[in-house]
Specification:
Blueprint: H1 14-23, E1 36-39, E2 43-53, E3 56-65, E4 69-75, E5 78-86, E6 90-94, E7 98-102, E8 106-112, E9 116-122, E10 127-135, H2 137-141, H3 151-157, E11 163-169, H4 172-183, H5 188-220, H6 222-237, H7 245-252
Antiparallel strand pairs: 1-2, 2-3, 3-10, 4-9, 5-8, 5-10, 6-7, 6-9, 8-11
């Protein structure tokens, strides 16, 4: 079974990418692990979706929408992690929970222990480069209960208590892992090995980042942590013309 068989002739919507994780059969071995080039009435660009291990799906895209598109996704219990390497803010309306906003250059996570439905509107001409992974409950089952003080526990917690979200600052290491989902030079068996190792690195780095964030929040409090992250976003946004310490303090609402 090849990866081409998993992509409909008219292309895939972002909702299809989420559903794909549930539809993969174990043992699928795509011949071509490179992103598939698609030209559809909805969007043009490249898409990658590959279940590298049972319960772990790696996905990436580099697409431009050629028409306004509103899509609705029905998601089974899943943890979704995604990074917009380029693009603009995306708002999704999650049924019974409200608005979920994803920002570029940020690690965005959402998880649920029950089926959910959300709707997203994307405008014509919007371009996105994204890379992420999806974790199904079967991925966590291999660890049993031996993850009480581990980064994996932080990820698994996002699949408890209904619909939950988290946003983490993007590190250079995780950004490079995300970029390689689309830009790796390998094919065939070597490509499969690379995608699997890259996906596992992705999970490990995000799990550790989430664990570190929780530790810092516990130390300084959520309000101060959010201010620190705001200051970091301001500095990362313009590394040439950075604000003075006084200007930065005023913008984030604290003293020097």
């Amino acid at each position: 079974m090849t990866l081409d068989n998993l992509i409909p002739p008219r292309g895939m919507t972002p909702g299809d990418l989420v559903r794909l994780g549930a539809e993969f059969a174990l043992g699928v071995e795509p011949i071509d692990t490179a992103p598939q080039v698609l030209e559809t009435p909805i969007y043009t660009g490249r898409l990658l979706a590959h279940e590298v291990q049972p319960g772990l799906v790696l996905s990436a895209s580099d697409v431009t929408y050629v028409c306004e598109q509103s899509f609705s996704v029905e998601m089974e219990p899943t943890l979704v992690c995604g990074i917009m390497l380029s693009g603009t803010v995306v708002h999704s309306d999650v049924a019974d929970y409200g608005l979920f906003t994803r920002h570029p250059h940020q690690i965005n996570l959402m998880g649920s222990d029950r089926p959910i439905r959300y709707r997203t509107l994307l405008e014509r001409g919007r371009h996105f480069r994204t890379a992420g992974f999806m974790l199904r409950p079967s991925f966590f089952e291999r660890f049993g209960d031996d993850v009480d003080d581990d980064g994996i526990a932080a990820l698994r917690d996002l699949m408890t208590g209904g619909f939950r979200t988290a946003a983490i600052a993007l590190s250079p290491r995780i950004g490079e892992i995300a970029r390689l989902c689309l830009e790796h030079p390998y094919g065939g068996h070597l490509g499969r090995l690379f995608l699997e190792s890259n996906a596992l690195s992705y999970v490990i780095e995000v799990a550790q980042a989430l664990k570190d964030e929780r530790r810092l929040v516990a130390l300084i409090g959520r309000r101060e942590y959010d201010r620190v992250m705001h200051a970091r976003e301001i500095l990362d946004g313009d590394l040439v013309d950075t604000p003075t310490t006084l200007e930065l303090a005023r913008r984030v609402g604290i003293n020097v």
